[in-house]
């Protein structure tokens, strides 16, 4: 703003700092961040050391199958090297792939949630790092019911199918434990399923949907083939589902190619992969 006195001279603009750390210009205040330390210098050996710790951290955290938060990785492992998070996590991802045949995948960019995905598919058709268990088979049943019912299934429909398998709410099962808790709590926390109340339903009714993890650990085509195997039918007998599954596979393949190219470029710029894997202590037997 051009401020002049009675004689036509331009008045200078004075700046002063408020005691609370704000800078004053005229009648306005602009907050100046303070107290934040500058990032430490980039040291490849230290970044790799943090990446090694992150690998072990991720392998332990993954045992619960609950997605791992970026904020927890920063707080528990990366700490003051948060400015180098992209490089540290890329180094950790490289080690997981080469030494443990596991991919690190961000499944929710808004909430920054990560999971580990095995490159070796289970017999149930799921790429999770969990060994084959009856729970995975039950999960595939539920995912197939959801997909075959238009990508959502009411709780009543799910229980109708589960009752045919001898599973009932409130009755503890020798393999699955409390089944209701498994499908409405455990699978939901692990992001295999979403469990949502139907809007304006009275009394409350709920529906199941695929969770974010399921889209990465399996596919609609695999689930369709699973359902066809049970029903002893050909996938093409369900024309709409087959068409949707093919489209999803094509889209997923395109995304995978783009991600692989971007990752290769990033790793080349960071010099990842040039060092021997065991030079920084990343060995599967260490």
Could you explain how this protein is built, in words?
There is one protein chain. By secondary structure, the protein is of the alpha+beta class. The protein is built from nine helices and eleven strands. It has helices at residues 44-61, 70-78, 85-100, 134-148, 155-164, 179-189, 212-217, 220-231, 239-270; strands at 15-17, 22-25, 28-31, 68-69, 102-108, 113-118, 153-154, 172-173, 177-178, 193-197, 206-210. The strands form four sheets. Strands 1-2-3 form a three-stranded antiparallel sheet, with no helix packed on it. A three-stranded antiparallel sheet has the order 4-6-5. Strands 7-11-10 form a three-stranded antiparallel sheet. A hairpin with a 2-residue loop joins strand 2 (22-25) and strand 3. Helix 1 crosses helix 3. The longest helix is centred in the C-terminal third of the chain and has 32 residues, at 239-270. The protein is globular and about 60 Å long.
